[in-house]
Amino acid sequence: MKKLFLVFLLFSAIYFSETYSVVFPTENWSQQYPEKAWGAIYIKNISTRVEEGKIVAVNVYKINDISASPGYGPFSQVSQTFSVDYNNDGYADIISLTYDGWVVIKENKMKETGDLSLENVRSYELPVRNGDGSMIVDDFDNDGKLDLFAFNSWQYAQFVDDVLNQGQASDKKIKKDNKFVTKWTVSAMASYDYNGDGYKDIFYVDYKGRFWVWINDPTKGVERFFNKNNIVKLFEDKDLASNGGGGVLDLGDLNNDGIVDLIAGHTDKKSIFVYFGKIANNQLIFDVDNKFVITTENGSLSEYVTVDPLYPNSKSPENLPSFGPTIIKITDVDRDGFKDVFVGTDAWRQGKNFGGSVYLFKGVNITSDNKPKFVSLELVHGSYSFENNPPYDFDAGTIADLDNDGVPDFVAADGNHSGNFYKIITQTQKEYELEKGYMVSDYLPKLAGILPKDLPNNFVKKIKVTIKFDLSLGDGSFEIRYVKSGIKDPQLIDPESYPLMPNASGTVLDTFTTEIEFDKPVPDPQIIIILKPASPFSAPHISYLKYEIETQPSQVIIKGFNWQKGDK
């Protein structure tokens, strides 16, 4: 009888095998994390840009400098911004929200003008005419289109389905208590799938230093965030509490350990803290007791952030009259594998009428105990209001590849005064870095849309990879390697220590397919793609990538499996 039962189990495992596939690049990819266009959670020396109308992944250009220059006028009354290349020309456009509740789509005309020039191409009103507060844009209903969620100073939540095309909109007043609000225009929201159900949730900080997550209820359509019982308090930090202003936050894997971290500040404080993410009982939590300090209460730098004399603009913000963040954004600006942090500041803080500073805390290393190290760079010094040198301060800011060179830039705008802005451009020369570039995929079941609860029935037995290169755009070599058991710390890996997929190396081809089958199904395999330029002026251009997996039920018991991985 036992033998018959075992045979039945074996045939059941084969019979219930499933096949999933996912194709890249995705459109409307994250300007903040462009590697997401290819399903990657970690990259080094790889960029995403548009060439001849095609989205491609290619080795990064050499970077000369990161510098700031002012611009005038297009952000009048703008309180919030988000970047997306909505017309797929490679030059990021901007979704903006105004103080009086208008959504305005601004198209980037740099391709035609040679400089950042924004043209309003579409606009419409929100149901509640107040955009003073915070906003987040993401695909919250998994239909491939971007949605908008805003929460204003009157405590009204507003949701727009398909924000680029003015889909259905809805609003509701949500009052956890009188302090559940931001009393200033700030970047107080970020999106991430907190509970692992496959839908993005929203992280939020109020002006009292309380951190929350709005759980996405996909059964409620445009009212998916309107149940106040689904707004969960994560923690509170009184060091980021005040009687006014607003908290500021962002999410990203700052120490490259595969778990998302939370970075935060406050308009009334000079401090910027990082709360490292960790997994406890299969739940994402943040380490509040051992928070990591970037800047202290007087604006001085912590031991992990240095002033480097090699950079003429390397300075500490402690020397500024005030340093009150309204914008904090994480990205990897130079594609070197270390996360960087942009900060834009308010005016009239800490008892001074000084503002409009932009700092970049550039990631340069990670310590043996998993702490990021930064160099502090002053990109815009700022000014006093009496100097009449607008922009006076910054209300809105976004990460965007403004010039289609494949590396992120930053735009900070003064919406409530001058409408002027600073653009922070990562300047490149049109020569490729000759060092190999590589990108590490997210877990393949996760990319295929398999939820953690369904993983025991969907371990990966077989992987098939199809990749296409546009040979008219460049040449070089490639490798495709596989990771049988998930990488725990991507930045420490030696990519070439992992086994090659069958025949998956050599000069780039128009189309290449490779597949591998494991002896037993595994829960968390990944793929590493490595690109090597042929010369400083010719490199491989990936134009298409497809992962196919065949899954079978697990043949082992999973205990405490951690699938909370990667950035937003």
TrEMBL record:
Signal peptide boundaries: 1-21
GO biological process, one term: integrin-mediated signaling pathway
Pfam families, A to Z: FG-GAP_3 (PF13517)
Keywords: Glycoprotein, Integrin, Signal
Official protein name in the record: Alpha integrin
